[in-house]
Design the sequence.
């Protein structure tokens, strides 16, 4: 397992507690375009000069030309929440049918310039009154469609807009700084185990106002199958990230406010921290 960090001064690699700069020029696009990203990174570690651990303020979102996509209704809890928020519009059965179908819900989430990095701000829509973060295990997928690693994703969502009409999903999900990823990519041939915990805490004025957790075992679909569906009749020359859905949903009475701090933890990635602008 290797952790890859994107920083203000370039890539930093970490294995077994030792931090290094790549031994030769290397970009994130190189990694995502490689047929064997893990082997590429391991070769970049041969003779690599040591580096200090990256500081929090130096971290950047670990992407370059990669789009972010997302899967929905992959957890039973998410299915229930989506049906509840859309009950007045008659859209509840849409989500029940997606949960039971072979084909997953997949949707575009963000281009690189819309993505927030660790320690930076995410946004809530100005035309929405019910906004929540969604903590998600996020897959790193190379240009050939192979999952080679994972990170943490925050899929910011406007629940009132999506609930008004399922066809409003793009407006509920896609806007500037509607997604955050980081703090690093774990590069490994092994995906997180079923026991892996996905946890979130939201703090307001220094106090915790919401916390919750789930595990990877609660995801209905095999993780690799989500990437397989995404790459059907679609190409990603620079690879992509794929958020895998959420199993932690704040109560209906909760909505984010400016200056809230969102902390999402998935080991061994670490904790992704963002604040609401």
Sequence:
């Amino acid at each position: 397992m290797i952790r890859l960090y994107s920083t203000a001064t370039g890539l930093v690699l970490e294995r077994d507690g030792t931090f290094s700069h790549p031994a030769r020029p290397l970009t994130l696009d190189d990694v995502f375009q490689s047929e064997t990203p893990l082997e590429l990174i391991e070769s970049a570690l041969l003779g690599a000069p040591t580096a200090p651990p990256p500081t929090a303020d130096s971290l950047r979102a670990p992407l370059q030309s990669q789009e972010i996509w997302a899967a929905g209704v992959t957890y039973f809890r998410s299915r229930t929440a989506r049906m509840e928020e859309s009950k007045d519009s008659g859209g509840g059965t849409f989500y029940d049918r997606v949960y039971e179908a072979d084909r997953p819900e997949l949707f575009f989430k963000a281009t690189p310039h819309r993505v927030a990095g660790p320690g930076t701000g995410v946004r809530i829509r100005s035309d929405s009154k019910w906004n929540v973060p969604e903590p998600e295990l996020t897959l790193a997928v190379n240009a050939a469609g192979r999952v080679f690693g994972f990170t943490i994703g925050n899929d910011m969502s406007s629940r009132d807009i999506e609930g008004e009409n399922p066809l409003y999903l793009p407006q509920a999900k896609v806007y500037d700084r509607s997604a955050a990823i980081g703090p690093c990519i774990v590069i490994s041939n092994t995906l997180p185990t079923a026991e892996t915990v996905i946890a979130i805490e939201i703090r307001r004025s220094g106090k915790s106002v919401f916390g919750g957790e789930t595990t990877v075992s609660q995801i209905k679909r095999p993780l690799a199958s989500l990437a397989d569906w995404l790459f059907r009749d679609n190409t990603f020359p620079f690879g992509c990230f794929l958020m895998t859905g959420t199993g932690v949903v704040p109560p209906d009475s909760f909505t984010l406010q400016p200056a809230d701090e969102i902390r999402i933890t998935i080991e061994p990635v670490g904790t992704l921290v963002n604040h609401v602008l």
The longest helix spans residues 76-85. The mean pLDDT is 94. The longest strand covers residues 147-155.
